[in-house]
Amino acid sequence: MKKLFVLILMVAMGGFLLSSCGGNAQKSEKTKSAVTKTKTAFVANLDNGKKVYNKVCIACHMTGVAGAPALKDKARWTEIAAKGMKQLHHDAINGFTGKTGVMPARGSCTDCSDQDLYDAVSYMLKTAGVSAK
Ligand code: HEC
Predict the structure, then answer these.
(1) Which domain holds residue 59?
(2) 22-60 burial: b if 16+ Cβ within 10 Å, else e
(3) C-alpha–C-alpha distance, residues 56 and 58, integer Å
(4) pLDDT tens readout for residues 44-99
(5) CATH number of the domain bearing residue 97
(6) Count of domains for the chain
(7) Any domain includes 28
(8) Which residue minimizes the CA distance to atom 13 of ligand 1?
(9) Which atom of ligand 1 approaches the CA of 52 most closely?
(10) Which among 5, 11, 21, 85 would be 20 to 30 A from 39, CA to CA?
């Protein structure tokens, strides 16, 4: 009987320790995400970028339909890249009217997330052979 009591006590203690550990982990997780929010949160996933490009952006950007910069037009992409990644991401999200045409907001892809667009822009820059800060 005494043994059983000790066993129950141990299980209860174990549960208590586990739950207090979980609580701590959650706390540190919260602090972590609060920190990353203040930094640039986007990290390019080029595989996803390729998928998004092939689904959406390719319609205009492969050959340069409607005044879009074609991916093989490195000179033009060099100029575009000089604007910086933040600006290009912003233009891909909100749309952009330039000298040669109109880039529709999100390339007209309503179900593309901001991350998808970041990935697609990164993929396009890489394919064009340029890089943006
Ligand atoms: C309907 C055609 C069309 C589609 C689809 C399209 N674009 Fe564009 N995009 C354009 C045009 C046109 C421009 C050039 C505007 C100019 O400079 O006059 C452009 C320019 C851009 C630029 C350069 C913006 C700048 O600040 O110079 C980026 C980045 C871009 N597109 C990203 C994308 C991405 C990412 C997608 C796919 C999600 C996409 N585009 C789909 C037409 C399109």
Answers:
(1) 46-128
(2) eeeeeeeeeeeeeeeeeeeebebbeebbbebbeebbbeb
(3) 6
(4) 999 999 999 999 999 999 999 999 999 999 999 999 999 999 999 999 999 999 99
(5) 1.10.760.10
(6) 1
(7) no
(8) 68
(9) 38
(10) 21
